[in-house]
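Structure request: DNA-directed RNA polymerase III subunit Rpc5, Pseudovirgaria hyperparasitica.
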Amino acid sequence: MPGAPSADDDPVIAEYDVFITKEISEQLYLLQYPNRHKDLPYNANNDTEPLEMRIKQKAGFVEVDVPIELSSKFDKTKGVRWGEALKQAKDEGQSTFGATAGFDRMPIPRGLARTTTSADPEGDIERMVERFPEANRAGRVYNKHTLGGQILKEQEGKPMYMLGAFRENELHLSKLTGVVQMRPQFHHVDAASYLEQSNRRREAAENAKAAEPRSVQMSIKSFDGDNVDMASTKEYLRKAKEDTWTRLKYHDEEHGDAYLEYSEKLFLHKDADGPDHPKLVSSLNNEQYLEAISAPRVDPSGRTRKKPLTKKEMRNIDDSDDSDGKEKPQKPAKAQVPSEVVQVD
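Returned structure:
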């Protein structure tokens, strides 16, 4: 027939046997970098191998420190200013910022202002810029930036993500513990803001006079649903504040240890004298599978629509009509469409 699509328009170019690996004891995360070009990954070949990786498992946060190239285009003044802000904030006990810290601020230790605040901070920055290599070795330069994100774990009714690894004509799938989108974290800006606010609080505390006691009447207002959202947000921030970082050792993808973990954990291995792996059998038939992947039926008018009858239900209706003894008109024959249930090894 002219214009009919040819079978060669969509040929099968490859076939793979699919395997699902055993669940491993280690946690397997997929880290995505939406702000980084795919041709410039963070690895040793690009001189951007991550320096440190850490995780808050209860709160569900992951952070990675990546080195910054201190080239001729690097702004040394800003690098020193932000690096010094981070160092001073950490000296005061503020080791993390933002959502990972629960947006919390550490209390200001007494007497710390006299020991850490310089009489000429801008002059100190200029002197450190003049001795930039020395300041960098002393940890006073912002020479690494942090990427981080929240772990998206498996949820009921949501898709299950798996990691695929190819070996010859085999595809091995491993279940992911979670997915994280790693985006820039502006901890250096938070540190500078924290120091500015802490200096103002110190000055206010030193200049404050003894306040006279006065009565205070407390009142509580109810906002129904808003209270539920506020309570869940407070619980979320409390977990982030109380959870501590677990520091991990990062292995580059070209490192031997990384390849060993890849080859041992992401493939299903068969024992030399052991039985064959069990076959994967679908728990759904063709109709159930189509129903599961189809979009929900929504009526714009808001009326509830009846679910279409299945072939089995339609056959039951036909049988009941035949049992009444009434002769049914013959229906025109329909073209038979071949169907096949595929069992994947």
